Amino acid sequence: MHRHDLRRLSERKVTPARLSCQYAPFHFPDDREGFDAEVHYLRDRAGREADFLVALDRKPWFAVEAKLSATTTEPSLTYFRDRLRISWVYQVVLEGKRDFVQHGIRCVPARQFLGALV
Prior knowledge:
This protein is an alpha/beta fold. The protein has helices spanning about 5-20, 30-35, 75-85, 110-115; strands at about 35-45, 50-55, 60-65, 90-95, 100, 105-110.
C-alpha cells in the first residue's frame, strides 16, 4: 500500500471515533451535566489543520490530529492550542507505540486513545 493511502487510512480510523463522539461519550456531558458538546474540523487560511476539536458550551475542550507515524508533534497543534486556548491537545498515531508529551502536546498510540473514549 502506498504511504499516502496509509496516512488517509490512519485519519479514517480516528474519524469513526470522531463521529461517534456526537452520539456516545460526548453526549454524557450534555445529558448528565447540561453542557452543549460540539465536534469541529480546524483549518486556517495558512493551511494549518487539526482533524477535530471538541467544544463544550462553545469553548474548546480538546483537539486531535491523526497521523500514520510520528516522532515529533505537529506545529499546527501548538498554534491552535495557543490561539484558541485549548486545554488538551493530542496527536494520535496509528503505528506508534510510544506515549510522550512534546511542547505540551500529547502524542499517543491510536489504540490507547480510542480505548479511552469507550
